[in-house]
From TrEMBL:
Domain MYND-type: 36-74, 369-407, 732-770
Gene Ontology MF terms in the entry: N-methyltransferase activity; protein methyltransferase activity; S-adenosylmethionine-dependent methyltransferase activity; zinc ion binding
CDD domains for the chain: SET_SMYD
GO CC term, one of those recorded: nucleus
SET domain residues: 98-232, 835-937
Protein name (Swiss-Prot/TrEMBL): MYND-type domain-containing protein
Keyword line: Metal-binding, Zinc, Zinc-finger
PANTHER family xref list: EG:BACR7C10.4 PROTEIN (PTHR12197:SF251), HISTONE-LYSINE N-METHYLTRANSFERASE SMYD (PTHR12197)
Signal peptide (from-to): none
Keyword check for Metal-binding: yes
The organism of origin for this protein: Medioppia subpectinata
Any Pfam family: zf-MYND
């Protein structure tokens, strides 16, 4: 007898040694008419061989493939004498003998074995001495007599040889994916020379669909160690095994047999019906049973894993410890997570993949293409089912391979289910693709560890459907209701598949950086189908362009270390994670779960909406302590790197940018850590990465020289501007000067100019909008200032070639164009914002405009994000009756587009009341390199109102006044004109002075050293105090000195208000 093959390399448990399909095979009698005699596929629509009526096939293709062997036995099956001998054993011998005699090369063809040797059936030595036994001799004479009755010419020596072959060389079992036990037997050439051992180092892994089977290592196998299998069942005692081995003329010499290591094993309770008697359950029984399994089957063995033991576990067990101990065994044999042979560092790409199939969520239908998942407002429906949306014909063609199988079902009564049930939709696409695309389930995919696997190769646990049996029955009932032809066993298998293999969420990349990316669909990625779970994963999936995803290392991974991901959200506590993992029948054994490392973590404050409430911190030490706690908790929850951790770090960085309570060295360290996390967990073109870089790098402009109050930083004219509707006909639409002799545009009658020169200068912009003002549906446009202003911007961008790309030199030396300014996309999930956008679209449609929806959205975002500067004017004669100047127009000034906001600004705009120019002046001493800031909201409003208005710009102010609420005691109501200084309500001089000092203190808190609005308040105060007997001379002198300085700082030298004030107040007399 030949020695068992050996390999020259060491093997680990689960390593595939070889894979083979049978030369010949037969189905047992009781499974005839249920399984195809050629491909072993179960079917309820098998067709008989029309001649012998003994063979069953699922298709003509299978009948043709099997005819090579069946034609030699077909006429014999029709003979009356054979009917009593047609058991599977005789049919196996008959097919083997007839194939050897009638197919010329059948017995002599060489087959390459996995150890490199070549062997044929004739080369295999057999022991003909088996016929010395009376029972075997009688069987030989029965066969010879039957051949005589059938008229088969035979050679006695040949019959003896091949009957001995069948007795010496075991035929291996064939199994169905949902049938316990074997349904047939086959001759596998690759395994004919393997030797037996009752302590085998390898075992067969059956393909649940088809005839192929793998030979895998069940324990570590050293180089050149003999490969052994067992040819008799291991769940029998030694005496029964030895008796069974006599039929193969074998005597086992393994340690278990020689030293009788299993003498204390109770084999009777390994019988499926007696494996686990729940009614007598105790902990000792459980421990003994596990020990017996180790002795009988060794470290790993399919029978140990997939035996009835798994199926008899009851939910009523008093403890889950038994399942916990059994789970590692199941996972190690059934689904071993891939490993790599090289060392990995954080950020290294392990693999990249596209989904085999994918489906869009119901709420995303009509917004994203069902094929490429790109967002579009011009999607086209499938004209047949009206359920699928595509961005172009190319996408529709690419998806038709899968959609053609499901399209007719949308026309039946399934529309209501498929339009709302996301899980059902992708399962149905999977099931129909398997049934209708020939190679869909059998196509091999090369995984990143070098192994090849198909959907059929993936072992599924049908027991997981037990808890979801109602789901299975519902699907079957639905199919029956619509008269859909289906195979219950196939439905059950692919339902089990969906409970075994995780679906990967596909997220949209058009959301704001401060929002969690939203899942818009899911897909089945072959590369990730065999990955194991851990709540401390060493890798994570990185969303790429479209449907592509990368698997990247999140920490250093050693050679041979298992690659793991997290199948559940990590921002949940242990109980919630364990509950979610029950869906996959997984019990996580990572350190975080076993030792409950996250027991002290408050997961609620790691939510974006609860992260860093800056308004509750008064001191820097409080904020620093809180920050350190949060960073420590993030390390425990997510590990060294993780995409979700990176999103939170970016949000923290943006919230804390320029916060005076955080030391600069710590912020630099924080930023460096975040940038490293971005490199590890985000792709280069990820919009979140771009937005963070913008927020962290696009600081407000700085100067290299110190400034004093009143110093001019820069002066600018607007790029575009419009006059507000209420001041139309009073001010020129080009130069913004007041005039009583303005002339209208003769075409639209909407624009007013003080002369032809102004009309010619404005025509560059007005010619694009003039036809729209003449449109019959232009009523809303004429009355809506914001729409007019945005429309002028949008039309200028679209019709003036260099308008959006022209570079403007800023006062800090940098250059910027309108296109260079990064803006955040509009959040269309916000109802109010969505209505505003829809209103713009409706108006454009009403005006019969041709437009690009993406451009419209971009410039709407630009318009909302970028600060609009108001253009002021007023009547010098009314300065003391009006608290502030009139806002007559608005414009975009290039110099001021990149300025940062602060409610304690160090600069302010100084308006030319006779034109459009605006100066930016320092309002307090500014050090070299200090950031230049302005206020984007009125400073005369309280903190709550300012914060509400800043949300429009996605800004959270972190100045001292907002963070520490320095203005909490300010009475903002009395800063209004009508209640500014009610002198008639003050009885005596003491109360008067107390009120005055409090008012001046409030103005200092609200406006700082200098501000144009503060100067206006002070001018009004002087007017009110003129001639008041209760005010002392020293106070008046103090106010006078300050006011003259404030006028110099906050007014232009030629401002008529300045001259009018100095002349009319007669300060010297005061």
């Amino acid at each position: 007898m030949k020695m068992s093959p050996k390999l020259s390399k060491p093997l680990s448990p689960g390593d595939v040694i070889t894979e083979d399909i049978p030369l010949i095979h037969v189905i047992h009698d009781e499974y005839k008419d249920k399984y195809c005699d050629n491909c072993m596929k179960r079917s309820d629509q098998l067709k008989k061989c029309s001649k012998c009526l003994r063979m069953y096939y699922c298709s003509k293709e299978c009948q043709k493939n099997d005819w090579k062997y069946h034609k030699n036995e077909c006429k014999l099956y029709r003979h009356e004498s054979i009917q009593t001998f047609l058991d599977s054993g005789f049919r196996y011998l008959l097919r083997l003998y007839q194939s050897v005699q009638l197919i010329p090369t059948f017995a002599t063809e060489k087959y390459r074995l996995f150890d490199g040797s070549d062997v044929s059936l004739r080369d295999i030595e057999v022991n003909v001495n088996v016929f010395d036994v009376n029972e075997k001799r009688e069987h030989l004479w029965e066969i010879c007599n039957l051949f005589i009755q059938l008229g088969v010419k035979y050679d006695f020596q040949e019959v003896v040889h091949w009957l001995a072959f069948v007795a010496n060389v075991p035929a291996f079992q064939l199994k169905s994916h949902l049938k316990i036990g074997c349904i047939g037997r086959g001759l596998y050439m690759g395994y004919t020379t393997l030797r037996h051992s009752c302590q085998p180092n390898s075992a067969f892994i059956y393909n649940s669909r088809g005839l192929s089977k793998e030979l895998r290592a069940m324990r570590p196998i050293e180089a050149n160690e003999e490969i052994t299998i067992n040819v008799v069942p291991l769940y029998r005692n030694r005496a029964d095994r030895q008796q069974a081995l006599k039929s193969y003329s074998m005597v086992c010499e393994c340690d278990k047999c020689v030293h009788h290591l299993d003498r204390r094993v109770d084999y009777e309770r390994l019988i499926p019906s007696k494996q686990f008697p729940i009614n007598v359950f105790d902990t000792q029984l459980m421990a003994n049973l596990l020990t017996d399994l180790d002795v009988v089957f060794g470290e790993y063995y399919p029978m140990k894993t997939m035996s009835q033991l798994i199926h008899t576990i009851s939910p009523s067990l008093p403890t889950q410890d038994f399942v916990t101990q059994l789970d590692p065994i199941i996972q190690s044999v059934v689904k071993m997570s891939p490993k790599l042979s090289k060392l990995l560092s954080p950020g290294d790409v392990i693999t990249q993949d596209m989904p085999i199939i994918h489906a869009l969520d119901s709420e995303s239908k009509g917004k994203y293409c069902d094929n490429c998942f790109k967002r579009s407002d011009q999607l086209k429906r499938c004209t047949k089912c009206l359920h699928m949306y595509y961005c172009g014909k190319e996408c529709q063609k690419n998806d038709w391979k899968y959609h053609k199988n499901e399209c007719p079902l949308y026309l039946r009564d399934l529309t209501s289910i498929l339009s709302t049930d996301n899980w059902m939709r992708i399962w149905l696409r999977l099931y129909l693709s398997v049934q209708n695309i020939p190679t869909f389930a059998t196509k091999k995919y090369r995984l990143f560890d070098g192994s090849d696997v198909s959907l059929r190769d993936i072992e599924v646990n049908a027991s997981r459907v037990n808890d979801k049996m109602l789901h299975f029955l519902n699907i079957c009932n639905i199919f029956k209701d619509i008269d859909f032809d289906y195979d219950r066993q196939e439905v059950l298998h692919w339902l089990s598949f969906m409970y075994t293999i995780p679906l990967i969420s596909i997220t949209s990349r058009d959301k704001e950086i401060l929002e969690t990316p939203k899942s818009i669909g899911c897909g089945l990625y072959m590369q990730y189908s065999l990955l194991g779970h851990s709540c401390q994963p060493n890798s994570a999936l990185i969303v790429g362009k479209g449907l592509s995803t990368q698997l990247r290392a999140m920490r250093p991974i050693a050679v041979g270390e298992e690659i793991t991901i997290s199948l559940v959200k990590l921002n949940q506590n242990r109980e919630d994670r364990q509950q979610a993992l029950k869906f996959w029948s997984i019990d996580c054994e990572c350190d975080k779960c076993v030792h409950h490392l996250d027991r002290n973590i408050d997961y609620t404050r790691l939510l974006p909406s609860h992260l860093f409430p800056l308004n509750v911190f008064t001191f820097g030490t409080q904020l620093m302590d809180y920050l350190r706690e949060v960073l420590t908790e993030l390390d425990v929850v997510y590990g060294e790197y993780h995409p979700h951790k990176t999103n939170l770090l970016m949000e923290i960085g943006i919230k804390l940018a320029n916060c005076p309570l955080i030391p600069e060295p710590f912020m630099n360290e924080m930023k460096a850590k975040t940038m490293k996390a971005i490199d590890v967990t985000l792709e280069d073109d990820n919009p979140f990465r771009i937005l963070y870089n913008l927020n962290s790098s696009q600081m407000s402009s700085k100067l290299s020289k110190p400034l004093s109050p009143g110093d001019v930083i820069t002066q600018d004219m607007p790029i575009i501007h419009i006059i507000n509707s209420e001041y139309k006909s009073n001010y020129c639409d080009n130069c913004c000067r007041r005039s009583d002799q303005l002339k209208r545009c003769t075409k639209c009658l909407q624009m007013y100019y003080c002369g032809k020169e102004c009309q010619r200068n404005d025509w560059k912009y007005h010619k694009n909008e003039c036809p729209l003002y003449r449109h019959p549906m232009s009523q809303k446009l004429r009355s809506d200032d914001c729409l007019q202003f945005w429309l002028r911007l949008y039309l200028s961008v679209q019709n003036i070639p260099t308008f959006a790309t022209e570079k403007y030199r800023l006062f800090d030396g940098s250059e910027v164009s309108l296109r260079d300014i990064k803006v955040r996309d509009i959040d269309l999930t916000d109802k109010e914002m969505r209505n505003n956008v829809q209103s713009v679209y409706s108006e454009l449609n009403a005006l019969d405009m041709t437009y690009d929806p993406k451009e419209v959205l971009h410039w709407l975002s630009w318009f909302i994000t970028v600060t609009t500067t108001h253009i002021m004017a007023g009547n010098p004669e009314l300065i003391f009756k009006e608290l502030i100047l009139k806002d007559i127009a608005r414009g975009f000034y290039a110099q001021y587009l990149t300025l940062g906001h602060s409610c304690q600004p160090n600069s302010a705009f100084i308006f030319n009341t006779r034109g459009q120019s605006v100066q930016l002046r320092a309002m307090r001493p500014i050090a070299a390199g200090e950031e230049i800031t302005i206020s984007r909201v009125p400073l005369s409003r309280d903190r709550a109102y300012r914060q509400w208005e800043l949300k429009l710009y996605s800004i959270v102010c972190e100045c001292d006044k907002c963070v520490h609420h320095l203005d909490r005691r300010v009475d903002y109501e009395r800063l209004q004109t009508s209640k500014f200084f009610p002198i008639h309500t003050i009885a005596d001089g003491f109360d008067f002075m107390v009120y005055l000092r409090q008012l001046l203190a409030d103005l200092d808190v609200v406006y700082g050293d200098y501000h144009p609005d503060k100067t206006s308040h002070m001018m009004l105060l002087i007017r009110l105090l003129s001639g008041c007997p209760m005010i002392t001379q020293s106070i008046l002198d103090e106010i006078k000195a300050y006011l003259l300085k404030a006028i110099d700082v906050t007014f232009l030298s030629d401002c008529p208000f300045r001259a009018q004030f100095i002349e009319s107040t007669t300060l010297a007399k005061l």
